[in-house]
Design a protein that fits this description.
0% helix
């Protein structure tokens, strides 16, 4: 039985995403000199901090899960957490 390893990262990343009126679709992200192609979007929710909205995404890449966040005020993407199997 494999156990999960959770790593709290909270680092800025570069993201290729497309925006429509009703959705944000993440295609790739670049972190620590590697490009990660999103295989599946698992979860999306909006977190509010006062007037600020923070968009949070859980995505899968090669069996691992990544939590990404997007701040539309400063246009910053961050990798918040990595869950490895």
């Amino acid at each position: 039985m494999k156990s999960e390893v959770v790593e709290r990262v909270s680092e800025p990343i570069r993201v290729l995403a497309s925006f429509s009126e009703s959705a944000i679709k993440i295609h790739f992200f670049h972190w620590r000199e590697r490009i990660y192609k999103i295989e599946r979007m698992n979860l999306f929710h909006i977190e509010r901090n006062g007037d600020t909205k923070l968009y949070r995404f859980a995505v899968s890449v090669k069996g691992n899960s990544y939590e990404l966040s997007y701040n539309p005020i400063n246009l910053e993407w961050r990798l918040e957490e990595v869950v490895s199997l």
